[in-house]
User: Fold N-carbamoyl-D-amino-acid hydrolase from Zeimonas arvi.
Amino acid sequence: MPRIVSVGAAQLGPIALKESRAEVVERLVALMRQAKGHGCDLVVFPELALTTFFPRWYFEHQEEIDAFFERQMPGHDTRKLFDTARELGIGFYLGYAELVEQEGRLRRFNTSILVDKAGSIVGKYRKIHLPGHHEHEPWRAFQHLEKRYFERGDLGFPVYRAFGGLMGMAICNDRRWPETYRVMGLQGVEMVLLGYNTPVHNPPAPEHDALSNFHNSLVMQSGAYQNGTWVVGVAKAGREEGVDQIGNSIIVAPSGEIVAACSTLGDELAIARCDLDLTRSYKSTTFNFARHREPDQYRMIVER
Ligand code: ING
Assistant:
């Protein structure tokens, strides 16, 4: 019996600064219902999918920043996502800003969760590769203050048994680093889920702007192929508070082929029936890590 996971890449268009959590949740629920109508088992939402991408601004006061964070998950406005998951029998990946008291102090993470068809949280990930800068840099057309607003994730790159296979999570910039996929690949991951907010313009390297979509698919296609895993990458797209963000949400097979893609910059579902057993031929031959990898030759990767 093939292990098919029918996945909906649930791309979001812009979320305005003034848009409430309740209004955003309505958009997410609409995409969940649409996905269910197409027989999806799982929908993948973007990174920080409940609010506008607030690291684009410098905020003086912590309480302004904390307004973008969730203190509970599910909380008052997000409970509807979990209720809908249970009502429809569909799971979801959700990116959000997590504020939690841990070891006696407040911690802030760029977080994603994996929720199953019963509406239970089966996995959590906290973003490890935080791009951008820590201090206000007024020279930039817009800021990218993830290093200021979030701590580095402290959960590693875990892989969870769910939806009939081994599921992993990443967030945005993580997808650009081969180590992200390899650490999960070494745990046998069969599907990596990730959301992103990627401005077209990268202030320190404007010469890369024209290649934003190419780099987006390049890193996910290579991560998929080199680890024999499915990769689902989902954008918060469009012109959000004056900043153009790429769309290009895609579902990538273990072969590295793109099997589904969004073609707009708005709320859009791209769907694929993903056979998890397509990972086998790569994991057992070309990328049979036990047979072909030479880790004693790779020490520089972790020692530098
Ligand atoms: N955004 C961007 C990303 O990695 C970035 C930051 C853009 C890095 C362009 C390099 C080039 O897609 C987030 N949120 O990580």
User: Anything to note?
Assistant: The radius of gyration is 18 Å. Residues 228 and 280 are 7 Å apart (CA to CA).
